[in-house]
Amino acid sequence: MSLNRRSLLKATAIGTAATVTSPFIIRDLHAQDIIKVAGIHDTSGGLDIYGKQMVATLDLAVNEINASGGVLGKKIALTNYDPQSNIQLYTQYATEAATKEKVAVVHGGITSASREAIRPLLKRFNTLYFYNTLYEGGVCDRNIFCTGSTPAQTVEKLVPYVQKKWGKKIYTIAADYNYGQITAKWVKKYAQDNGGEVVQTDFFPLDVTDFGPTIKKIQAAKPDLVMSALVGAAHISFYRQWAAAGMNKQIPLASTTFGNEIVITSPEEHNGYIVAFAYLEGIDTPANKKFVETVHGKYGIPHMTELATMTYHGMYLWANAVKKAGSIDRMKVIEALEGNASFDGPAGKTTIDPQTHHTVLDVYIGEAKDKKFNVVETFSQQKPSDTSAVCDLKKNPNENKQYVIDVKT
Description:
This protein is of the alpha/beta class. The chain is built from 14 helices and 16 strands. Mean pLDDT is 92; it is low at 1-30.
């Protein structure tokens, strides 16, 4: 079974609907019988390699919650919007979800640019927002909950691990927007903190596909390893060109972003890559094995990433908070989430940090091997210390910005 356009658009449970460019509104249920929620994820465009998974796991969580009785005696009605990797459509659909559909919560966004396009809108319209994607950190806003990992949780573990394994000299390649730019700074900081250096950093727009000149520059620099923070379908070209040039046999590679790319590239291209995420399919727990079996079988997803799994966690965190609050009222749910809300799921235990509205989570280092990541090291309950250095929503609940964290190198 493949996760194609048809399966993405098919309603898969009572009270669940999906759409590409406009919502299919459920007409046969009374408004008082349902709780509306929305997902805004790219299922077309250059970021669909991530978005399709996030739609599937959001749908899975809603189906499971509904099958167990829903929340507050009501079914969740999910509407999925496809912004097609277009920021203008993100703002259009966020506005529609908040004002026309009056949803209780929005789960959405992949890039930081998409998040920052809709975050102010959802705050203005008093609509709760969950951003479930790993990112560069620094968002400080009481109306948003960020369940994905930040550099202080993953990059801080990845850099010293690969330096110890391969050497101290790093060449960084990254996507040319705030995630890649800021993550590159963290790589440099952690490299220096561990007695190493970044010899060069190159940035690439998301639509770049020709990496030949860069590969020659890396050959000339002779680093001990390459650190990749590339993003999106176009950037997969780097890994293929890197292998075609025989460089994967000469200089090892680690990445802060290489996840679903493992399905698209061949084992000959990716074997030996090292990553660090808050979720890997190789986590050996009953909860994860059941989760993987379900998403592979029911949804035809060949490989699960942190983005998709934290979307699953995010929906459960919200639903459990609604139950605790006894209401979908935004502020009551926020207060319930701030009460050390946690969820034990396929990624392990995820707990909301009330100071930052980010999460305390487990981090896993994995090695790519034949289209899978084998877990080679685990770090339990890592705190979002980068964001907590700049954000304190307990003291300043009216904050509404993303701080650019001063990464001292």
